[in-house]
Amino acid sequence: MKKHFLNLTLLSLFCTTVFSQNTYDIVFPQADRDQKCQYYNQLFNQKPKEVGFSVQQEKNNLYFQINDKKFFLQLFKKVGDGIAIDVVPKSLYDCAEEAIADTQIKGMLLKPVYMQKLKQGLKPFGKGTFRVLVGTLPEALVSEELEFNILFLNNKNLCRYQRVYEIERYPWDLLDMGMYLDSLTYQTKKIKPADKESFVTKYKTFKFEIPFEKNKATYSKEDIKPMYDSLRLTEFNIKTINIRAYSSVEGSLERNIELQEQRAKSIADALQTFQEPTITTEVNSSENWVDFLNDISNTKHANLKTLSKVAIKSKLVGNLAQELEPYLKNHRKAVITLELEKKDLYNDKSTEELISLFNKVLAANDVEIANDIQNSIFEKLKESQSSPDILNKMNVPQQAKYARFINKNSVNKFLLKQSYLLIAYNELLKLEKLVPRDKEVKYNLVALKMVMFKHNAQPVDAEKFKRQIYQLKNYGIKQILIDRMMVNYHIIKSEQYMRKGDYTNKDKSVAYIEKNYKKFPLSDYDYLSLAQFLTYYSNHDKAVNLLDKKVRSVTVDEDLLFYYLNLTLIKPELTASSNYRTIMLNAINMNQKRFCKIFNSINDGGVTFQLLEDEYLRKTYCENCNE
Question: What are the boundaries of the signal sequence (predicted)?
Answer without folding.
Answer: 1-20
